[in-house]
Structure formats: structure tokens, C-alpha cells
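Service request form, structural biology core

Requester: graduate student, group of Dr. S.
Request type: structure prediction, single chain
Budget code: on file
Notes: please return the result as C-alpha cells.

Sequence provided:
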Amino acid sequence: MQRARIVITGIGVAAPNGDDLREFRGNLLAGIPRIENIEHRYIGTVHAGQCHFDERKYQTRKEIRNGTRVGSISIYCAREAVAHSGLDWRAVDPRRVGVYVGITEHGNVETEHEVFNISQFGYDVRYWTHHHNPRTVANNPAGEVTMNMGITGPHYTIGAACAAGNAGLIQGMQMLQLGEVDIALAGGASESTRSFGIFAGFKSQGALAVHEDPNRASRPFDKGRNGIVVAEGGCIYVLERIEDALARGAKIHGEIVGYAMNSDATDAVLPNPERQLECMRTALKVARLRPQDVQIVNTHATSTPQGDVQECRAIRTLFEACPGTFINNTKSFIGHAMGAAGALELAGNLPAFEDGYVHPTINVDDLDEDCALPNLVIGQPLKLDSVEVILNNSFGMLGTNSCVVIKKVAP
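Core staff response, request fulfilled:
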């Protein structure tokens, strides 16, 4: 059966170093990160990637107060994506729009806050907020988008740890191919910097980054890397069938031509390079492309000593004979945005179809020989003659792996 071709027509971004795609991309090419120190309950000072977009742009104070941070991030990104797409939203049938938001976890932030709040009143549950349940249900981020935008089609979140951003994109594509919707708002979002449990968990694993300069704390592939910088953020895409996009004269930012998801089934935390390799190979097979057809591989590498090496083993095996394939990492700028990571990092690379640049990996002062991949772009952006295919990796705990392949669509 011939599957419908699915394209990206709008991109909405909330990143620590950019409130929209243009600013985000510009800072990636200019080598400008934005990681800061914040004070967290029980832990003290930690490095974090914080977003600074204007929540009031699309929400009232009451909506922000009653909702969640990740809901605000999702709403902002969805609204920005629609504006970027050029869709006439008033003419869109709300029944034919679906919302699919990838998340790493949800509910931790609100529960932590409420437990702390009642601890100030002798744990009297009369002080527990009546907003708790709608704030903590797993579908909250996608549901807040539908309420804000008047969407009456399907919505749900996709829980896939740190592979969730890609998973949201894949889900949106599949729903379009099934004919369930005509427009998909798909991607990922994260409010992880609001949860002390995330920081405490990584710290207990010995996987929380520490550096005298927060902007240099996220350093994938460097010998001195010592852990993850937790970040919040989001990226939502407008996805359409290519015939619909062309019919309305939309600008197309890329076509999703390949994808794959699989499971390690070996360890809850340590990645399995064999399964990661299998995931990339499957995505390329679905795309009917060869490794040498790929110009950019955006890595998942989170700046952990073991995780970076495992992914590099998989990439080296697949792309070692591909002199025209170049490799980079976006987390070196923004930290690890968890459920948003895959979608957000892909967005940082998609403009390469137009400008031809591979954004660099920064903070690599002493390259780990085990991470010394061929054509790893470090320090400065690299201009290519053309960029036709981008492969985006995103992996997560419990061994969930995702990969998407995006191809340039000729104007």
C-alpha cells in the first residue's frame, strides 16, 4: 500500500537559547549557549537550561496559574508552529486536527510542589490544590493545547522517556497516513527543570553535570564530561500530507521519509549500541536510503561518560565509510530537554536544508578518543555544498530508541 507523504510546514520552538526557530538557529550557528545556575529545593545550586518565552503571548494569567509549565510550553510551541505554517486557522476544521506531544514524565513537578506546600501546614490535605488532578493526568500537555486552541480532534501524550520528541513526530505522521486527521501538531515538551526529583535522581546516579561555568557544563564527547545538564523546552511541528501542503502553497521544511523505534531489553540506564545501530538502519531502510545519502547526523549524546561512547560506537559502525556525512550535537548548547530533546534538536538542524550549514558541537576542549567520530563538527559551523538528508537520534531510559530521517523537498 502506498503511504501518504508527510511534510513539515510549521515549526514552533521554545529553547533555552531561543524563543523561535530563527533565534534558536542563529545562536546555534554563532556558538551561543544559554545555561544558567538556579536554586532548587533540597539540592541548592544546579545548572539548568531555562526558557524565557512570553507565556502571556497566548495565555491569560488565570490560565497560566491554573495550568502547568509544560502546558504553557506546549501551547506556546503549538501556536508558534501554526503561525509559522501560514495556515488560516479560522478555516481549519478543529475536528480534523490531532495533538501528539512526547513527554519523558508528567506530574512530578505538581506533586512535589503540593507535598511541599502541605508540609508547611502540618501535612493538612485541606491545603492540597483542587487543580492537582487535571494538572497531573498524563495527557495534560496535549490537552491544554486543545483547550487553548479549540481543537476537538484526538489528543494524547506519548511517554517515551528521552526518545519522546521523535516519538511524538512519528505518531503525528502515522495518524495522518491513517487518515485520522488532516493536520497534526506533533513533537515534544518538557518542564523537567521544575522537578527536584529529576536533579536528585541524576545526582544519585553520578550523572549530573558540574562545572564552574554553567555554559560549559554540557560537553558531549569531551574527556572532561561528567553528566547531564537538565533543561526545559519544547518543539511542536505542523505536519500535513504533501498534497494538502502544496495545494495551499505552503513552504515545506522537510519530508519525514524514514523512522524507527525499538527497545534495548538489556539495561534500564546504559544504552545498547547494537540496538541503536539497528534503529538507525531500520529508519534508513524505511526511507529507502543508504548511510552515504545522509549529510547530517544529529546525535543524542547527553554528556555522560558511558552513554556518549555507546552511541558513538553505533554511529561509527554505520557511517565509517561515509565521507560526506557530518555529525553534531545540540545538547552542548541547551542541555538535555528530556521529552522535548528529539523534536527540539531536529528543529535546530532543519534550516540546514536552506543555508547548508552544519551547526557545531561546542565545549569539546579535549576530544575523548572513544568519541572521535569521523567528520564530527566541533567549534565552528561547517558549510556544505548541499544538505539533502538529516538523521536525528533520540534515545531514552529503559532502552527506548528512536530515529527519524528527514529529506529536503525540492521547491
